[in-house]
Design goal:
It is a single chain. This protein is α/β, with parallel strands linked by helices. About 50% of the residues lie in helices and about 15% in strands. Helix 11 packs across helix 12 and helix 17 packs antiparallel against helix 18. The radius of gyration is 25 Å and the shape is elongated. The relative contact order is 0.11.
Amino acid sequence: MRTSLTTTLPYVNADPHVGFALEIVQADVVARYHRLLGHEVFFNTGTDEHGQKIYERALEAGKEPQAYVDEYAARFEELREKLDLSYDAFIRTTDEKHVAAAQEFWKRCAEKGDIYKKDYQVKYCVGCELEKQESELEDGYCPLHPGKELELREEENYFFRFSAYQDKLLALYDERRDFVMPAHRLKEIRAFIERGPQDFSISRLKEKMPWGVPVPDDEGHVMYVWFDALVNYISTLDWPDEKYREWWPSVQFAGKDNLRQQAAMWQAMLMSAGVESSKQIFIHGFITSGGQKMSKSLGNVIAPFTLVDTYGTDTLRYYLLRHVHPSEDSDMTLERFHECYTANLVNGLGNLVSRVMKLAETHLDAPVERPEAAPFSEEYTRAIEHYEFNVAMDYIWERIGAADEKMSTEAPFKLVKGSDEERAKGIELINELALELYHIGRLLQPFMPATSDAIKATVLANTKPETMFPRK
């Protein structure tokens, strides 16, 4: 069995933030889970490097746009090590093969009759890099960027005939009821399309904004960043070479502010170019801080690099996967992060491993035999396959709690000091607890891979490990 999945491509106009860390860690869990089941996996991520925001930031920094994006793309590539990611491809929208694929995609949509040129006037949110209809605004502002003045643009652009795909998109949503998850996001995008999709601009005048993929056969225009960037999901698979079909269609991970682009605009573009629709789209929520959306202007951004440097990679993965809701907004503070680390990792899992393996090292004559890879429970597999990462983690922690309770109530540490019969019972309990630790380690593999490896290794070596989660 083959599984292909991809994150969105983060915009390289700032350092990585914890919101994107959530998305890529969620995708990594699914990739690792399928590999654990013996499936072939292709996991894609990368960086979105064109558009007005990047062009303006590069000018402000006194740098050429390419030099600017090279610097920030390297920061995002650092996430591989910092978050222990297992992706197979890192596509940059400035890569030659991506540029060529985007231009070919444009040509196919044009041949279908879905690209045309016209003069237009529109309200435009630079923060979203999207045009905004009056019905989308709140008090005259984009709800995702309140207080940021909309630009009134009037120029000649190329447009994509989005309006021609209303019926086909609605048919897609009706036919595949799990096409967008969770279900209320499918309902949301369906309602948007039912209101009547409007054709959208897919180019910018080069004289005003030159940083983009050149439009085929028109040197005066560059592609609008969204049209260009969305093609990455197939350019990374070497489309238009037919071998892309080995991995397409893919599962896509995206934030709720990407719903329209991923579940509607991109699907219409695929239909136009004659490419199969995506396999499924999972939409996650935002991470807020102190009840507010994270933003540099508010000074409440939490940097994943800082958390990893202080607490370790698996601690951040643990928090994002258990204490951040997979699909709804969740608040995150450094105080809450520290509390969860201390209660559930230091005093919970770490303490359990230390206590059990100290007993095993002292009282077992040999390590427990490596258990066969038993099938995972339905509760565990269903949770992962429905992107309910917190539910899967709660299941694991229930087993951790049960093992801890068994240690306390049956007290093997006391039994081994008693009569021969009591000692035999104590050793049997230690053996059972060590085996359970191994199974817990296996369950943790997609979520906390380094911790998983450490637990399994210490059980098979029958040694007490160094402190897994030091107090902070």
